[in-house]
Amino acid sequence: MFDISESYAKELDRSMELSEYRDGFYIPEGVIYLLGNSLGLMCKKAESNVEKVMMEWREMGIKGWLGGDPPWFYYAEKLGEKASRLVGAKAEEVVCTGTTTVNIHQLVSTFYKPKKKTKIMADVLNFPTDIYALRSQIEIKGLDPEKELLLIESDDSRTLDEEKIVEMMSEKVNLILLPSVLYRSGQLLDMEYLTKEAHKRDILIGFDCSHSVGVVPHQFDDWNLDFAVWCSYKYMNGGPGSPAFLYINERHFDKEPGLAGWFGYVKKKQFDMLLDFRSEKSAGGLQISSPSIPGFAMVDGALDVLLDAGIDNIRKKSEAMTSYLMDLVDGVLSEPPYNFHIGTPRDINKRGGHVALEREDTYRINLASYNRSVVTDFRPPNVLRLAISPLYNTYHELWQTVDHLKEIIDSEEHLEYSMDRAAVT
Does the structural domain 6-30+310-416 have CATH classification 3.40.50.1110? Predict the structure, then answer.
């Protein structure tokens, strides 16, 4: 029988790998923070990097573009090279730039050239911003998103059937955009399989990896993806609103950016200020605007920590901790009156870094958890997300969280809260 005792949780922590990294983060006093899939905590290396960049700005002014360490002018590419090691790509295929939604617009605008094949495939469970961007791109091409956007349905409202995704890959599909990890349930899609099947049908395919990069290893080149995007403020711990990343496979370097901007110009000629656009033949050519250097500095420091820990080590610990949490929920919270159901796939190969708990009244339960300094989040209609960040969360925190949830139900504490939704949940 699985050991649900507090002493066992503490025993696991004594032998916990990567525990030395916890001290490298600012953890609010008395708080159990299980929201790294929404905004990771600040790491001290990110803070020190920002201080360094601010000092460069103070002392060098504009000279920091070439005199900074690293030179600000090449910072996007430097961060792309670092991040490429997390996703199994070549350095020149990844760049740090823009935001996730802007990068979706850029890549879809670059790849989506509807003629005979006019349809884009996505899914009903995807994060809404991806769908907004796809609809917008279809309209920009003068087409009707109600006709041209095919949304894959879910049989259970929490996961996608990969075989049904393949069945929908018709001869009319031009491009596919899917999440690597579904933001509600935490299902991890088989990107290699889906890419292989799409390419068999001459369909371009890309993934939004915002809920996987930093906690799940990727092999973009081996899997032969066409493109990908992801943010840096979730499991990468890059800070609120920190710059995003994009990947484009080198076989597509000949494509002209759909959205041209001066920071995508050939690097050596950028300051020639010519009116005819010439893009850099790399991921860097898809940049649009001048970057946020303080934002880059945050991401740079956070990347150093991830790379030092090793993405395979992070994934191994994530698998162990999500399994432990699931076992705790099964042993403590699955029967009446608690009635929590795990909506995340049990197979470790099919889940990302968070566990989705389903139950009636999860919005108010989440508010009660906040009041107990247990930071989780609610996603409609009935999901309480618990995201484990292996570099700073502990097994004992997971045990405490389950104990808090038990006490909340036992005392009916959650019923004291209103169902009126806050602006941010």
Answer: no
Q: Strand, helix or coil at 354? A: strand
Helices (H), 225-310: 293-309
Residue 370, SS3 per DSSP: helix
Closest CA to 260 of 287, 229, 292, 282: 287
| Cis, peptide link before residue 337, omega less than 30° from 0 | yes
In angstroms, what CA-CA distances link 369 with 363, 386, 406? 10, 11, 11
User: What is the fold of 48-308?
Assistant: Aspartate Aminotransferase; domain 2 (3.40.640)
Residue 26: band (very low, low, confident or very high) from pLDDT cuts 50, 70, 90: very high
Q: What is the pLDDT of residues 304-322, one digit of tens each?
A: 999 999 999 999 999 999 9
Contact (Cβ atoms closer than 8 angstroms) between residue 78 and residue 53: no
Q: Which of 344, 383, 380 is nearest to 188 (CA)?
A: 344
With contact defined as beta carbons under 8 Å apart, do 43 and 410 qualify? no
Question: Residue 191: what are its φ and ψ, rounded to 5°?
Answer: -65, -35
Q: What DSSP letter does each residue of 207-230 carry, written as one string?
A: EE-TTTTTTS---HHHHT-SEEEE
Task: Please give the structure tokens belonging to residue 105.
Answer: 């617009």
Query: For residue 424, what pLDDT is reported?
Result: 67
Q: How many residues does the chain have?
A: 425
How far apart, in whole angstroms, are the C-alpha atoms of residue 303 and residue 120? Answer: 33
The amino acid at 15 = S
CB 221 within 8 A of CB 88: yes
- 320: β partners: none
Token duo for residue 57: 């700005």
CA distances from 209 to 119, 183, 256 (A): 22, 10, 23
- Greatest alpha-carbon pair distance for the chain in Å reads 71
Beta-bridged to residue 178, according to DSSP, are 207
Domain boundaries, the chain: 6-30+310-416, 48-308
Task: Give the Cα separation of 249 and 124 in Å (integer).
Answer: 26
pTM of the predicted model as reported, rounded to 2 decimal places: 0.96
Closest CA to 299 of 229, 228, 233: 233
Contact between 127 and 210 under an 8 Å Cβ cutoff? The reply is yes
C-alpha–C-alpha distance, residues 111 and 114, integer Å: 9
Bond before 70 cis per omega within 30 degrees: yes
As given in the structure block, the two tokens for residue 87 are 């996703």
Per-residue pLDDT at 418: 82
pLDDT tens digit sequence for 270-299: 999 999 999 999 999 999 999 999 999 999
